[in-house]
Amino acid sequence: MNSLINKVAIITGASSGIGRATALLFARNGAALVLGARRGDLLNQLVDEITQQGGRALAVVGDAKDESFAVAMVQTAIDHFGGLDIAFNNAGTLGEMGATPDISAAGWRDTLDVNLSSAFYAAKHQIPAMLARGSGTVIFTSSFVGYTLGFPGVAAYAASKSGLIGLTQALATEFGARGVRVNAILPGGTDTAMGQQMTSSPEALAHIQNLHALKRLAQPEEIAQSVLYLASDASSFMTGSAMLVDGGISISRT
Ligand SMILES: NC(=O)c1ccc[n+]([C@@H]2O[C@H](COP(=O)([O-])OP(=O)(O)OC[C@H]3O[C@@H](n4cnc5c(N)ncnc54)[C@H](OP(=O)(O)O)[C@@H]3O)[C@@H](O)[C@H]2O)c1
């Protein structure tokens, strides 16, 4: 049911963390992959790893803030693999952090551009390709931050991640009747480069771990399993969802 055989998938933010783990899992489940991020060296290493394991993957180096990156990702999927079935729009940044009055307008805009406008550009170009195929599934990486939990010092990040849920709902209602499902995944604290930015001291790590009911961070491979579920026919009746995969951080009060 989780098989992605004969499916073509785009993954952004594939050079590390959740995106990288998802790429490896999707490849093991049979998908042909178009992998995007800015760090081409890391993307090329991942493409080599997948190819050596018998999978199919191509890298597109670019900045998710640019609409041309979204166009190039979709065009690569069509030109090399014949179309597009799945898009995991996962690239993200914490952006400029600090007390909200101290956040610069440029920092605010940059965070919204990387996390939210990128998702709009992605969907704008991915959905027509999916409609041409007659079906598709789009997944955005949102967060519990800005949804079930307020967090001080990350206003731009929270606003952008919250905005992704609105985009998810709008797209799900626009394209559900034509076979395209759209969902957001909301990971809890995850042990990636971004997660480590929030847990740089032993005290900060202990604090963040303790916020979760499971009293630990997720490994990126655990989040990838839920992305696979949303990407596959196993989730065929899910659309418009904000799916928490958060170790219970949203319901824990201890
Ligand atoms: N870690 C957590 O605790 C956590 C919790 C909830 C949600 N999330 C979300 O999960 C997603 C993945 O993050 P992660 O935790 O896996 O952290 P990560 O390892 O730092 O990965 C972030 C990815 O986004 C890419 N990226 C960042 N800015 C980009 C840009 N302007 N253009 C293209 N790609 C860009 C990075 O690639 P390049 O640097 O090579 O461009 C990298 O591949 C993010 O959207 C994040 O907000 C993370």
Number of folding domains? 1
CATH-scheme architecture: 3-Layer(aba) Sandwich
Helicity, in percent? 40-55%
What is the tally of beta strands? 7
How would you portray this structure in words?
The protein is of the alpha/beta class and 254 residues long. The protein has one domain (8-245): NAD(P)-binding Rossmann-like Domain (Rossmann fold, 3-Layer(aba) Sandwich), CATH 3.40.50.720. It is 46% helix and 15% strand. The chain contains 8 helices and 7 strands; from the N terminus they run E-H-E-H-E-H-E-H-E-H-E-H-H-H-E. The protein has a 7-stranded parallel β-sheet with strand order 3-2-1-4-5-6-7, with helices on both faces. Helix 1 (17-28) packs across helix 8, helix 3 runs parallel beside helix 4 and helix 4 (105-133) packs parallel to helix 5 (155-175). The longest helix has 29 residues, at 105-133.
Q: What's this, in brief?
A:
By secondary structure, this protein is an alpha/beta fold.
List keywords for this structure.
single chain; 254 residues; alpha/beta; Rossmann fold; 7-stranded parallel beta sheet; 8 helices; globular; binds NADP nicotinamide-adenine-dinucleotide phosphate
